């Protein structure tokens, strides 16, 4: 198929990046400061918060305040996670541009993450889809554990395809394929993508790869070659997974951007500003910067 000419980067750091951050709850002003800086870098799709139970994810407990505190820029899509109708109602009241429902390709991961089976989760999303349709709010769908599960090991690509198709058929405009614990390798990524693309158009698929085993950029290169043109990433590689010991965050946005720049693929994002933003947030959190490009271009925190 060949590389796309343009890629939409979907910035994950305010949500996937911060949701598992250990220690005290991060101040709302740091979260809004991060989101505003990311928009200034040229990012046009920022997953900004989660309207989930604060008992499950305390770091996302101030989602409404975050949405109220950002300086919204025209042309930027500020999206959030919504696991159920209650989450959708909070998100809608906060004026989000897009919501996302999230399912898994593994039964065990579904139980640990959202306390229900895959089938129950899909049923739970139906009222979200209906309400979102009424309010004309687009819905993104995630499938987690697409290349491996911390409890079940290998995941059959057909199982990923089944869940992705179910989300697409219920009206999700884009399906993001999550290698939640970063165990994939390029051939596996291609096989998984081929299985999904037999049921969901390539133009409606996104890659969401974590970098635990250092394979995320190689996996992205593999799926870019197949025509994927939407990539989820997190500045400074922020993030982790509470259900997988040692799992790293999303692939660093700086590293993805450097790769895309080298391939001549347009994103509209400024690398120097992004590197500065990665160092800024690491300074705020007193955290190591997980971006190789960030380290090379700007020293380390
Ligand atoms: C789904 C539930 C709520 C089920 O949680 P539950 O305990 O089964 O459901 P519940 O309905 O009994 O609710 C429990 C409590 O939460 C409240 N509640 C219920 N819903 C909400 C809501 N929307 N907002 C705020 N509060 C809520 C509800 O009112 C109740 O409060 P209580 O009566 O005990 O005081 C819970 O399991 C949950 O919030 N899970 C979120 C987990 C999460 O955010 N995980 C991280 C997402 S990352 C991911 O999935 C992977 C991804 C997307 O990044 C891609 C990848 O990397 O692969």
From TrEMBL:
Protein origin, superkingdom: Bacteria
PANTHER family named in the record: HYDROXYMETHYLGLUTARYL-COA LYASE
Annotated keywords: Lyase, Metal-binding
Matches recorded under InterPro entries: Aldolase_TIM, HMG_CoA_lyase_AS, HMGL, PYR_CT
CDD domains the record matches: DRE_TIM_HMGL
Pfam families recorded: HMGL-like
Species for this entry: Marinobacter profundi
Designated name of the protein: hydroxymethylglutaryl-CoA lyase
Pathway(s): Metabolic intermediate metabolism; (S)-3-hydroxy-3-methylglutaryl-CoA degradation; acetoacetate from (S)-3-hydroxy-3-methylglutaryl-CoA: step 1/1
Alphabetized Gene3D superfamilies for the sequence: Aldolase class I
A single MF term (Gene Ontology): metal ion binding
Family: Belongs to the HMG-CoA lyase family.
Annotated Pyruvate carboxyltransferase domain residues: 7-275
EC assignment: 4.1.3.4
Catalytic activity: (3S)-3-hydroxy-3-methylglutaryl-CoA = acetoacetate + acetyl-CoA
Gene Ontology BP, a term: ketone body biosynthetic process
Enzyme kind, highest EC tier: lyase
PROSITE patterns: HMG_COA_LYASE, PYR_CT
């Amino acid at each position: 198929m060949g590389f796309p000419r343009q890629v939409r980067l979907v910035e994950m750091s305010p949500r996937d990046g911060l949701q598992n951050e250990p220690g005290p709850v991060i101040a709302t002003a740091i979260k809004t400061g991060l989101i505003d800086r990311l928009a200034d870098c040229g990012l046009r799709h920022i997953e900004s918060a989660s309207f989930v139970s604060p008992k499950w994810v305390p770091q996302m407990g101030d989602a409404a305040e975050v949405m109220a505190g950002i300086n919204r820029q025209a042309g930027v899509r500020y999206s959030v996670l919504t696991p159920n109708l209650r989450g959708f109602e909070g998100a809608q009241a906060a004026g989000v541009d897009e919501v996302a429902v999230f399912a898994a390709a593994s039964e065990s991961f579904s139980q640990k993450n959202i306390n229900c089976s895959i089938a129950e989760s899909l049923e739970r999303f139906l009222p979200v889809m209906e309400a979102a349709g009424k309010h004309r709010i687009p819905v993104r769908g995630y499938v987690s554990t697409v290349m491996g599960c911390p409890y079940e090991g290998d995941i059959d690509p057909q199982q990923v395809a089944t869940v992705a198709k179910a989300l697409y058929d219920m009206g999700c405009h884009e399906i993001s394929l999550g290698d939640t614990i970063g165990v994939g390798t390029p051939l596996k990524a291609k096989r998984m993508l081929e299985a999904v693309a037999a049921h969901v158009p390539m133009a409606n698929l996104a890659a969401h790869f974590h970098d635990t085993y250092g394979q995320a950029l190689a996996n992205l290169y593999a799926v870019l070659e197949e025509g994927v043109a939407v990539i989820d990433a997190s500045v400074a590689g922020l993030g982790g997974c509470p259900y997988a010991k040692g799992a790293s965050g999303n692939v660093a946005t700086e590293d993805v951007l450097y790769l895309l720049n080298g391939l001549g693929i347009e994103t509209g994002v400024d690398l120097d500003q992004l590197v500065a933003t990665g160092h800024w947030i690491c300074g705020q959190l007193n955290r190591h910067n997980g971006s190789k490009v960030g380290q090379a271009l700007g020293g380390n925190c």
